[in-house]
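Structure first, sequence second, as always.
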């Protein structure tokens, strides 16, 4: 296949929760447990209100639907505290750490853009042993931006930190909010379905999709960097 510089990717931005580590179950647990503490047993939120969203957004959604009178910031801290404890044993998605190392070896610039706080990114970067691949300025958490996903602010901030154009940037995401943010940033995206919900609808928002990183071809990262991959509507399942 001839080289196509128009398809070349210079940087890859990874979401964290549900994309690199399987922490979405703990998100649902945190919401249920914290709501019960405030007198609302059995309470849940739909995935569009939790996946790819900040804890402040989740807290606001809980308060709106239940009338809990705790301040939103205090409720968000309570949710995060429970979630931090519950996610201590969360497992990485298959092939996640190896994929990041392979992408780095292929010459791609990498960042993590998460709706979790920067401290959570740092914790999982250490657990995955990928600190040499994700620089400090390339760890964009909820506390790094004024507007969370689906706003593109986080992805655009990461692109600036890596000194790359949006058009040369690829996003890995598992949520509707994240995929919408990537699209709004003018970036291509791969929808990671392993932990995702609403797969049919969210697939339509992505450039391509994969089950997890072990399903990607052996030369995925160098071919991506060289512009040899046409991702449009590709499935790596």
């Amino acid at each position: 296949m001839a080289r196509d510089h128009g398809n070349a990717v210079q940087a890859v931005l990874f979401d964290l929760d549900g994309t690199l580590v399987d922490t979405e179950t703990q998100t649902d647990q945190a919401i249920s447990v914290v709501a019960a503490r405030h007198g609302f047993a059995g309470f849940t939120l739909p995935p569009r209100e939790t996946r790819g969203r900040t804890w402040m957004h989740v807290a606001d959604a809980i308060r709106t639907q239940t009338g809990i009178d705790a301040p939103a910031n205090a409720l968000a801290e309570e949710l995060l505290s429970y979630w931090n404890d519950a996610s201590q044993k969360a497992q990485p998605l298959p092939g996640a750490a190896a994929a990041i190392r392979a992408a780095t070896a292929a010459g791609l610039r990498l960042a993590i853009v998460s709706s979790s706080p920067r401290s959570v990114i740092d914790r999982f970067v250490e657990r995955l042993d990928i600190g040499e691949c994700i620089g400090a300025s390339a760890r964009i958490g909820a506390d790094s931006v004024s507007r969370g996903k689906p706003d593109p602010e986080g992805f655009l901030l990461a692109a600036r930190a890596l000194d790359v154009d949006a058009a040369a940037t690829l996003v890995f995401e598992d949520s509707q909010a994240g995929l919408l943010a990537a699209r709004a940033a003018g970036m291509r995206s791969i929808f990671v379905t392993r932990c995702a919900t609403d797969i049919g609808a969210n697939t339509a928002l992505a450039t391509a999709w994969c089950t997890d990183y072990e399903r990607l071809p052996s030369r995925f990262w160098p071919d991506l960097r060289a512009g040899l991959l046409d991702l449009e509507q590709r499935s790596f399942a």
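Margin note: The chain has a mean pLDDT of 96.
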